């Protein structure tokens, strides 16, 4: 068995209170990392922190709204004041939407950009000097929506495309410093992001339109994240359908557009006609 490269590493995970973020935080903790948990819900954070500590591992909670720059700066300060440095940042905090562009209130798109894009920018800005010093990793938890537009998810796709462009540029700017930047795109996952997805008027949709039993588990995604960091991967699309789509998009883009349209139209109560 190989050396555990995550032991004693300081890891910040945003959106750590539920779903993929929660699973990633636990996976790092079980590999000996010192995990800084960031999310808005103090109750959920403290519950997770206690759960990790009860298993004999290290964790620290920091209530953070990633849409507020000052709170992202404070998140970095909290991690550094406690542990002295930062090795890995997992930009996982995110929200989704489900509405046609012609119907959606523009405040919904702004909200998605604030969380998915600006949250990544703010957290990366303040953690980056420490991560670069350690030749560590910056990770963006994304979606196939960041590689191809999804109908009914204009704001979500736009925010993920923006996040991709930002992270890929950071990777190039820090080539000489050997900074590792990874964008990982899970498939549909059993997490709160779909139930909390915003409708056209900005309210949450509540129930997921997809069958949970056919989706990835957050724990599966978490294992892929650690594996990708260990191998210093660049971009990782986790589903074979997603990988084929990325390939076909370059060869027969019109066909891919139509395939996505049909797929999203098949969802129960789809906004597509």
Distance between the termini: 53 Å
Q: How is the largest sheet built, in terms of strand order?
A: 3-2-1-4-5-6-7
CATH architecture assignment: 3-Layer(aba) Sandwich
- The helix/strand class is alpha/beta
State the helical fraction.
Answer: 40-55%
CATH-derived topology: Rossmann fold
**Main beta sheet: strand number and arrangement?**
7 strands, parallel
Could you tell me the number of beta strands? Answer: 7
Per the principal axes of the C-alpha atoms, what is the gross shape?
A: globular
- Low-pLDDT runs of 5+ residues are none
Oligomeric state of shown chains:
single chain
How many DSSP helices?
9
The fraction of residues assigned to DSSP E strands is 5-15%
Rounded to the nearest angstrom, the radius of gyration is 18 Å
Please state the average pLDDT score.
90
Number of domains: 1
- The H/E string reads EHEHEHEHEHEHHEHH
CATH superfamily: NAD(P)-binding Rossmann-like Domain
CATH class: Alpha Beta
Q: How would you portray this structure in words?
A:
This protein is of the alpha/beta class and 273 residues long. The protein has one domain: 3-Layer(aba) Sandwich (Rossmann fold), CATH 3.40.50. It is 48% helix and 13% strand. It has a seven-stranded parallel sheet with strand order 3-2-1-4-5-6-7, with helices on both faces. α1 links the parallel β1 and β2. It is globular, with a radius of gyration of 18 Å. The model has no long low-confidence stretch (mean pLDDT 90).
